[in-house]
Queue: 3 jobs
Job 1
Amino acid sequence: MTTTIPRDYKVKDVDMLITAATITESAIANKTFLQSKRSTWADPFFDDLKIQIDKAIQIHLGVDSAKKLRESTQVVYNIQNNAIKDLAEVKIQIVEDFKDTPARQSEILNQLGFTAYHKDAQKRDQEALINLLYQYKTNLTPELKTEIVDKGTAALALDNITAYADTLKTANVIQEGNKGERKVITSEAVMEFNKIYNKVITITRISSKFLKDKPALKDQFSFAKVAKTLNATKKPKPTPPTPQ
């Protein structure tokens, strides 16, 4: 009788491993600070963990290039961060610039996708962000763009968001393609995955305390937030009807 080893994590195996790999890359990038706070993380601690994750991906998931997969995931993560930041900046300007005409303010926010998708996009729902970006791109007509720019928002800020739609979609497709063929996951594989997960969770919990005064950097050590960039499982919400 086959014994089923329970997983210590709730996300997909591949998403857990790539989340772990992404967090490990962040740890390597900030290792001087982290190692100054914790001696047992001295070299080659993070590098060894990176190798362990890469081997697990290659052996148990059948991915030819763990490095390529990790890099494509990091591209998605970076694009998402920039898009969320730029969208927030544009939205607050629209809200303030059109506060004296609330009906028009509501119309613009709805038309550009903020009403339906922005809240979930800020929670790093990748599907919601892509839907928001495409609705924004489709509905930012030259006339609407001029209207918003005339109120004070920089044209370049609006153009940057338009460009994110295709860039994020392309990067996401590459990321999914790089996940490769799945192998049958054995109990041995799950045991190894659990070891990796628990090691990374320890890193995130301790690092989050070390980085409590650096919220942006702290987010890079949140397993839930990094994993969220890989999980776009929610169905998109329907666009509310345009106010008459």
Job 2
Amino acid sequence: MKPILLMICAALLLAACGGGRKMSPEELQHKLDSVKALEIKEKLALQGVNLEASDNPLKLFYDSLEIQSLPISYSEDYVNFLPAFKDVTPDIVSYMELVECKHPKAVALPESVGARLMIMAADETDGHYSLWLYSLDDDYVPVDKLCLYAVDDMDPEDINEFGEEQFVQYFSITSDYEIRLMDYTKKEYQARLDEVYHVDESRKFALASSREE
């Protein structure tokens, strides 16, 4: 089946480059995302996962999660203790393509924007978790993900300029699903990054505004 998917991708690229109406970059990306989603579903089918069946493991896992009420925002307690997060089973870890995680955890968000969203906590270092916001399609397959909080997201230039202990990553998700990511220094509240995202019609995280220092 993979050669067929490669042929589809090639046809899409040919359509984008010439012949008839040219595709916009957004249209081309949407088509490629659709092909990728089809490939993921075929891969799951080969693993014996019937996404349309009532025992779809992705659906069963998602339905078992606690619901995180909104709004939420960064706090040291939240990222350290992960309240209401549930352990992710090994089979789900493989579906979510989590790498080098020993004890990942997850929590769901209320469904009110036409997309199923959940926060996945990935223990990329012992005892410390990065947080990823996932959007899922109708079959509970991941469509897109956005890093809310990274355990190790600082390069040497940042450390030299700000000092490692002074740098804070901030995130918030409002009840209207406005997702804000900010990096700032503790002492002077000097922002290095300020981005706002929303969930678009394709269930991807679209950048609405950005400001960088």
Job 3
Amino acid sequence: MERELLKRAHRLYDLQGESVERFLAADPTFAALAHRLARAEARLAQGGDPEQVRALAEARRLMMAMLRETAFKLGYVLAHTYPLEEKT
């Protein structure tokens, strides 16, 4: 059962990754950080070192991957530890 639950969780992560990205984009803190990274990337692209542009783009992708992975792990932990019964 545990292995099946993990497989289902991974499948959900794959299917809902874009939803997590949209949710994070609506968050003011994340949106501001993503905007600053995009501006820095655009400035570098206008005559900066191509290697720096690639590095900054990779940093942005890595940040998103880390956020998605953290959201997945948090959901997995909560699914195993949080009582699902509604509290009144």
